[in-house]
Design brief:
Elements (H helix, E strand, L loop, with lengths): L1 H26 L18 H7 L2 H34 L5 H9 L6 H15 L5 H22 L3 H12 L4 H12 L1 H16 L3 H6 L6 H9 L5 H30 L1
Helix pairs in contact: 1-12, 2-12, 3-6, 3-9, 3-11, 5-6, 6-9, 7-8, 9-12
Protein name: Spermidine/putrescine transport system permease protein
Organism: Palleronia pelagia
Family: Belongs to the binding-protein-dependent transport system permease family. CysTW subfamily.
C-alpha cells in the first residue's frame, strides 16, 4: 500500500512546491485590495486594467516582444547555419568547434552581460534594445545550435543526396528539403529562445538604458514595494511563457507522431 501511495505523494508534493508560488502570484493578481497578501479580496480585474492602461508598461511589453522575436530569429538562423555546416561538411577540428559553440551554455548570464557591456563600450555603441538583442543572440545561439544539430540525422542526409541526384542545386536542397524536414526542431529552438529572451533580466538590465524590457521595468517597480499590479504583470509574463512552451510541446508531439 505504501509503495503505491508514496510515489503519488512525492509527485504531488513536487508539483505543489513548483506551482504553488505561481498559483499565489496569479490568485493575488485578482486582488481587489492594495496589497497582494491574505485575506483574498476579489476577484477583480482592476490591476489588469491598470497594467494595460500604463503606457510605460505597454511599451516595455512591446520592447520585450520585439527583442525576443528578433533575437530568436537571428539565433535560429545562425544556429542552423552552424549546425548544417558542421553536420554536412568535414571540417578540421569540428569537435572543437562544436564544443566552442555549446560552451556559452555553461557561462553565467552575469559574466556574459559584463563581457558584452565592456565590448559595447569599447566599440562605441550606445546601450539600447539593439545591444540587448545582441546579448540575447549570444545566449540563445548555443541552444539553437544544439537542438538543430541533434536533429540532423541520416534520414535528412539521404533525402538531400536524392535531391542532388535529381539535379537540385545546393540552395534548393537547403530550402526545399533540409529546412522542411528540420522544421519541428527549428520551431522548437525558436520558441524556446523566445521564452528565454522574454523574461531574461540580467543582460537586458546591463545592456539597455532608456528603452527597457519588461523584466527591467518590473525590477524598477519592485523598489517601491509589493503591489497586486506586479502580480498582474507577472501573470501576463507567465501566460506568454506557457503559451510558447505549449507551442514547443505541440510541435515536438507532432514530430514524434510522424
Amino acid at each position: 500500500m505504501i509503495r503505491h501511495v508514496l510515489p503519488w505523494a512525492y509527485g504531488l508534493a513536487a508539483f505543489a512546491f513548483i506551482y504553488l508560488p505561481v498559483g499565489a502570484l496569479v490568485l493575488f493578481s485578482f486582488q481587489d485590495g492594495s496589497l497582494p497578501v491574505p485575506p483574498f479580496e476579489g476577484p477583480s480585474l482592476r490591476w489588469y486594467a491598470d497594467v494595460l492602461g500604463d503606457d510605460d508598461l505597454v511599451a516595455a511589453l512591446l520592447h520585450s516582444l520585439t527583442v525576443a522575436l528578433g533575437s530568436a530569429a537571428v539565433a535560429v538562423a545562425l544556429g542552423f547555419g552552424a549546425a548544417y555546416g558542421l553536420a554536412r561538411h568535414h571540417l578540421p577540428g569540428s569537435a572543437v568547434l562544436r564544443g566552442l559553440l555549446i560552451a556559452p551554455l555553461t557561462v553565467s548570464y552575469l559574466i556574459v552581460g559584463l563581457g558584452l557591456l565592456i565590448v559595447v563600450q569599447r566599440v562605441g555603441l550606445g546601450l539600447s534594445l539593439w545591444t540587448a538583442g545582441i546579448g540575447h543572440v549570444v545566449i540563445n545561439l548555443p541552444l539553437c545550435f544544439a537542438i538543430i544539430y541533434a536533429s540532423m540525422g541520416a534520414q535528412q542526409q539521404n533525402a538531400e543526396r536524392a535531391a542532388r541526384d535529381l539535379g537540385a542545386d545546393e540552395a534548393r536542397v537547403v530550402l526545399l528539403v533540409t529546412i522542411p524536414m528540420l522544421a519541428p526542431a527549428i520551431l522548437a529552438a525558436f520558441f524556446l529562445s523566445v521564452t528565454l529572451s522574454w523574461d531574461e533580466f540580467i543582460i537586458a538590465f546591463l545592456l539597455t538604458r532608456f528603452d527597457v524590457t519588461l523584466p527591467v521595468e518590473i525590477w524598477s517597480m519592485l523598489r517601491s514595494g509589493l503591489s497586486p499590479r506586479l502580480n498582474a504583470i507577472g501573470s501576463l509574463v507567465f501566460l506568454v511563457s506557457v503559451a510558447a512552451i505549449l507551442v514547443i510541446e505541440f510541435t515536438l508531439f507532432r514530430r514524434r507522431r510522424k
